[in-house]
Recover the amino acids of this structure.
């Protein structure tokens, strides 16, 4: 009788442990399913995007604030404190910086939706950054001061790199959302995705851009990211991958042809 009781207790304990493990497994599967859900992934990426934007904007604004004093000193050229030339010199750096900030603000939106901007936009951004750098470092170059050149070069260069990097970062974050959507799509969701696609502009994939690049390529064409952007209209972040893929295909075709 005692042996039967012990055996029943052991079976009950084993069943309880199995039930707990089954409940834990079901909970873990549910958590994993929601963590990989496209909407949840998109929400988490949007939070990261907001943090990236805030940090980059803070660094850019601080760097431009540092350059403002240097540019004012450069533009004032020893004018008397409080005089009209001294006061007017404070307008030079904000004139350049406001144009740069407007461009970066616009790219914040275009990069999110992977819309390619034109050459004039990049030319204006590079011109404003180059002007800021020259005005910050001219006096140090003229005085032959390496320490001054380094000191006044760091903030403009940081602003320049941040302005270029933040656009690519936003582009890649958008790619991450698209990858999450594609990887989690199930056969049962195909009809819903197709319906949604009919209701909004079609989203082009890597293969679509690559197919366009293949059609546009000719034997005398040198494949570069800039050429890929021109013929496909893809984003800067995607053009490098497309150029590398198409270059590899071209090289493979040449080897087989030879």
């Amino acid at each position: 009788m005692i042996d039967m009781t012990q055996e029943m207790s052991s079976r009950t304990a084993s069943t309880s442990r199995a039930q707990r493990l089954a409940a834990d497994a079901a909970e873990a599967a549910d958590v994993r399913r929601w963590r990989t859900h496209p909407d949840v992934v998109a929400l988490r990426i949007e939070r990261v995007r907001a943090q990236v934007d805030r940090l980059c904007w803070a660094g850019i604004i601080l760097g431009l604030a540092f350059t403002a004093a240097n540019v004012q000193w450069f533009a004032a050229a020893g004018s008397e404190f409080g005089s009209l030339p001294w006061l007017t010199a404070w307008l030079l750096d904000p004139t350049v910086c406001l144009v740069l900030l407007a461009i970066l603000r616009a790219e914040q939106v275009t990069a999110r939706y992977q819309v390619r901007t034109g050459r004039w936009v990049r030319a204006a951004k590079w011109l404003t950054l180059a002007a800021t750098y020259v005005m910050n470092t001219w006096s140090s170059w003229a005085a032959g001061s390496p320490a001054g050149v380094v000191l006044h070069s760091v903030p403009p260069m940081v602003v320049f790199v941040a302005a270029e990097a933040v656009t690519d970062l936003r582009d890649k974050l958008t790619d991450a959302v698209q990858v999450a959507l594609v990887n989690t799509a199930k056969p049962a969701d195909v009809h819903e995705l197709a319906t949604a696609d009919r209701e909004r502009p079609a989203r082009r994939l890597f293969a679509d851009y690559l197919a366009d690049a293949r059609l546009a390529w000719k034997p005398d064409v040198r494949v570069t990211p800039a050429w890929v952007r021109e013929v496909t209209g893809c984003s800067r972040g995607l053009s490098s991958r497309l150029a590398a893929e198409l270059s590899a295909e071209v090289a493979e075709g040449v080897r087989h042809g030879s």
Notes: Residues 38-76 form the longest helix (39 residues). The radius of gyration is 29 Å. The chain has a mean pLDDT of 77.
